[in-house]
Structure formats: C-alpha cells, structure tokens
Amino acid sequence: MKLQFSLTIYTSVWLKNNPQVCKQLITLHGMYETITSDDCDRVINATRPVTSMYAYVADKNLDCFKQRGLYEEHKFIKIPNGLPVIETYKLNRKDYQIDESDFVFVLASRALPEKGWKEAIEALEVAQKSTARKLHLILLGDGESRTMLERSEISYRVKKVKPQG
Known about the structure:
The protein contains 7 helices and 6 strands, in the order αβααβαββαβααβ. By secondary structure, it is of the alpha/beta class. It folds into 2 domains: 2-78; 93-164, 3-Layer(aba) Sandwich (Rossmann fold). Strand 4, helix 5 (117-129) and strand 5 (135-140) form a beta-alpha-beta unit. The longest helix has 16 residues, at 2-17.
C-alpha cells in the first residue's frame, strides 16, 4: 500500500508538471480509510489538481472527501459492485428424481474438456462407491462436453448426471 500511495503522489506531481499530457482517473478502494489523516490530506491535495474523475465502489470511499468538504458529485462515478438482484426459485428435487436425503454436487462452467466435466463424472462414480448415500451430479453449462455427454452412453450409464442449460 505504501508503494501505491507513493506512486499516486509521484504520478500526480509529474502530471502537474506536464499538464498537456492528460489528467488522471483515480479509483478509490479503501486506501483512504487506512492511512493517517495527514497522509490523506497530502494525497488528496496532490491528486485533486490533476484528477479529472474519481471512481469508487463503496459509498464509504467518499467519506474522506466529504469530511474535508471536497466532494463534488460531478467528479465522482460509482462502479457497480456485484450482480443485479434477480429472482431465484427453488428447484424441486422430485422433478430430477432426487430424494431429500440424497447429496447433490453441481458443476457450473462452460462445457469444455478443460473444465473437468468428465473428471467430475469419474469423481462421482468413485465417491459413490464409498458411501451408501445416493450422490447426484448436476452439470450446468453449454459447449462441446455437454453435446458429447448427451450423445454418449454415459448419460444413460450414469443416471445421476443431469446436463442443464
């Protein structure tokens, strides 16, 4: 972090001395919460004149600017963090011939050989030999491994494998 702090200041000083080059965009990611108040003042004062925009993820990243009266809404842009909230639903195990006491493994990936679908099926077969509890494997994804699985006898031999879209 000390290196990043130093680079931020050095870059700002260089840009101040070479204003024709560009202005910078600074991403706020919590550094301001972990440095002393004096260091925070120093980095903000060094970067403000040569910073066009600040990008932030969490609203708390704005606190150091707001506390100093330096927050200007038009100079800050929020980067959404995470995924949008989507409606989810519970799958009915009976629709997949899976009893409530059965254990379910799920592999979600592109259905490519290097993603391990074949290995997951083999691991399921090995694991099933070591327990009386029924094990199931649900494969989520699309690609050549899914196509090969749907065409092969393995989907009939290993009935626990359920390719899903």
